[in-house]
Specification:
This protein is mainly β. 6% of the residues lie in helices and 26% in strands. The longest helix has 14 residues.
Amino acid sequence: MLTNTFTSRAALALLLAAGAALSSCNNQVDVATPERVVGEKFSGDTLRSPLKGTIPGRTAPYYMTRDVTVNDGDTLWLQAGVKIVVLGNPRSLSTFGQATNNPGFVINGVLLSTGTKDRPVDISVADNLKGSSTVVDAATDPAFKGYWGGINGDGATLIALKWTNIAYVGGPYGANAPSGYAAGDPKFGISLLARKPNARFVMEDSYVHGTVDDCVRLQNATFSVVRNKFEKTGKAGGDAVNIKAGCVGDIAYNVFVGGSTNGVKVASVAGSPVQTNVVTYNNTFVNCGYRQTKSGRGGSINYEVQAKGLVYNNLIANCRFGLRLRSDDRPDTANVRYGNQFYYANTADQAAEFNAATAGSLTTSKITDMRGAAQANNPRFQALDLTTASGTTAAPTTLMQWTNFLKPADNLHLQAGSPAIGKGRTSFQPLNAVSSVNVPGVFTPTGSAPGLDVGAYQSNGSGNQY
């Protein structure tokens, strides 16, 4: 249950009277803004379970040593500036990341994580486990180690993440894996395979770095995933955002870099009471799809299995595949509309795939798409090396498989004069499926309308803020 602390009318009247008396010399009344909390404030350094109430932001970190459960009917609010370091069992440091020791959040109620650009919520591991930020083999990169268990919200009513950083997730399930999972399966970064009706998921302006499998997996939920940044998602498989049956929502203004398989995958099932319906627009995909070795698997956007929706204004550069409507697991092609995709290919092999030559795909070229030969239509990012040799679709280079994050000097904003500017379509509507979510004074979703420019960054400064 969501509760808020407000000053009562009587108390406020007394406070105003006292303030007036104290400031009678200058007729100025100063009234402090009441502090807003959900439930009780958490005190201490190590998170306990079950947990509810408000965790206040502070300079010092909090620590997670075991699973933290939010019970049905309870709410946990992580305020701006909260930093959580996942340590695992302190008595068994050598097993951290193994099936018996990779704690995470289990949300059966409500999770609110509301950071700000200047004071994000940060949930990660100790600095000594993160390794170098330079390009390394995916087999040894700490980003794919799977140290902790992420956020399992399969029993949740609402998960809302704003300016929240999550990193180094994907530890394996043990022998007591919940229904739908098996021992040894890597945990998803964020999961909401909803068991409750009307479950909702909102993720805005957040950053995920390093997952073993899917970063976000949703089922039977209404959702919005907007203006986020995803890097190093999937060690040898897995999608950044994997939308399953019964979902309705928008995926917009996100940046996907170096994902193992797709940036976005959307699927439904035949006869589902709620057909999956997703509007995917104004996203930027770079270097995705190369660590997935299975034939025909995607590299940017994949719609399949009776899913419907709209796909517009996406910028796809140096990915293994472009937009794919799978022919073997067909989406609802009569109700999938798409266009205004901007493709850049460094090699002839990439260009051939982008130009509707992909085996197993029903996608056709649209007159509003920007396609061409190798190295045509350079989007003119402000700073990004687009010359990495990718090899072929069947045999990608090792270097391309490792090109899975943005260096500090990289910048995916568009230069003035970019051919992607002004090529977007704005005459369609997002679904805005979570517009009814409103936690007064704590969180309200902030969706983004379609952009005139292609990709996640708009020349007027709107769109993605990373």
